[in-house]
Amino acid sequence: MNIDKRIEYDKELLNILPDGVLVLNSDGEVTQLNQQAQTELHIKSFPDKSTQPLRIENIINLIYHKENILPVVMEGLRKGEQGYTLPEHIDIQEKNNYTQFPVNGRFVTVREDGELKGILFFFRNITVELTQEYILNTALQRTKIYPWYYDIARSEFTLDYRYFEHLGITPGINNTLTMEEYVEMIHPDDRQAMADAFTIQLSGIETFEKPVPFRLHRGDGTWEWFEGQSTYIANVLGHPYRLVGICMSIQEYKDIENTLIEARKKAEESDKLKMAFLANMSHEIRTPLNAIVGFSDVIASTYYELSDEERADFVRLISINSEHLVRLIDDILDLSKIESNTIEFTFENYPLKSLLRDIEMEQAMKPVPGIEIKALLPDADTNVVTDATRLKQVICNLINNARKFTEKGHIHFGYTVDSNHADSVLIFVEDTGEGIPNECQKEIFDRFYKVNTFKQGTGLGLSICKTIVEHLQGEISVSSEPGKGSRFVVTLPLNIQREY
Ligand code: ADP
């Protein structure tokens, strides 16, 4: 090959390289420049015969920590350094358009008998790589995706260090875990599915591309849901030597899924209860109404044939059923007010003792044989800032329930002020009735809930009580033992927490 051909050949070779290449003589003058370098550095024509020889210092700056380090690098190479690899985070600033871009690269010297003959400078614009790296890292971090690979010969997982951080566990050397250590972290119920996926992947016959959900044991002892996906890298014979994959935390989705399942269950349950309520309602309204209409008819049509006692008895039954009907309708009206959020409260300073005495007097007017209904009150009165009408409604509701579910013994109600919680008062209603099974004690405050669906009642009273007590900034609770009785407690602040 003659010399011209040789030069042409070298030029072609340099031009097909993806990196920029500058060939410099020992003085730093550019003797050759490939196509890529010309493009990156915005050099229109080279060699440009009309101008002075092109020196590297006149084409670029090498910006590292805001300083141009090119003169120092060139000086080092002239003084005997064999080469110089560009550190990370270094930029080329080209002097034609003054654009700046991050680079990888290296200076290499050509020497003959120790004497510097030329310098080669290779560089690669890494803007695209850095952009992709940034996008990938941001995506991985935001989506909680952790890359991993498994070295089959060493039976060893190498995991993203963030995976260890996320799980709150100590990483092995070089962020590795053995297969045994990893399997140990997987929930026993999920190990088989993982083992099956691995067996297929390791066979090298087909790739297992479906994501596998599994739970991992976190450092704090809890379980977290992940989804794993992998592929393999095989040698020339097609045998896999490395599995590569990602693990993605799907705990947030699982939590949302569980909340939705829970909400759907509740909605279905509430739907069922509502249907039962409607069916029950017609019965609940019809029964007292039938009694009222029936006994009124009897009195009207046979007034003079009835004895005084019979008439008094019928009138009493009409009165009991009317009262029941009014209570029922009041409950339904209250429920609709709660639903439409139009229930109103008027707070005022009210003496609690007088309120309970009034209730005791009203109760005394409708005694139940075999049951003592009594208020147990401290000597001193206590003033509460509350809506007295609504509070009375709650206490009466609790007493009416106690009357409904008590055959014999007593119904006591009253209040105490605990010296440890002097800013609140504890109002109680207790009975020696049938009691409430432990497992039902939470639900009785839900709408339409009844322990025994065949018993009279709408299942609304306690849920209305709970809503009222919450508006009064208090709490309601129950303790009960089946066969022995129940004790309902309403805790109210003596003074409410807002303007009234
Ligand atoms: P209702 O009494 O109209 O059915 P409530 O909401 O007032 O509705 O009460 C819900 C359920 O709680 C009742 O059906 C009953 O099973 C139970 N319950 C309430 N109070 C008592 C009590 N004092 N003793 C036993 N069970 C009670």
Describe what this molecule looks like in 3D:
With 500 residues, the protein is an alpha+beta fold. It folds into four domains: 3-126, PAS domain (Beta-Lactamase), CATH 3.30.450; 143-249, PAS domain (Beta-Lactamase), CATH 3.30.450.20; 270-339, Helix Hairpins (Orthogonal Bundle); 348-493, Heat Shock Protein 90, CATH 3.30.565. It has helices spanning 3-15, 35-40, 56-59, 70-78, 127-143, 161-167, 179-185, 191-203, 251-301, 308-339, 352-364, 388-404, 461-471, and strands spanning 20-25, 30-33, 60-64, 67-68, 83-85, 90-94, 100-112, 115-125, 145-151, 156-159, 176-178, 212-217, 223-234, 240-249, 348-351, 371-376, 383-386, 409-416, 424-431, 475-481, 485-493. Strands 1, 2, 3, 4, 5, 6, 7 and 8 form an eight-stranded antiparallel β-sheet that branches. Helix 9 packs antiparallel against helix 10 (308-339) and helix 12 runs antiparallel to helix 13. It is elongated and about 145 Å long. The structure holds adenosine-5'-diphosphate (ADP). Adenosine-5'-diphosphate is lined by residues 401-402, 405, 431, 433-436, 444, 449-452, 455, 457-463, 486.
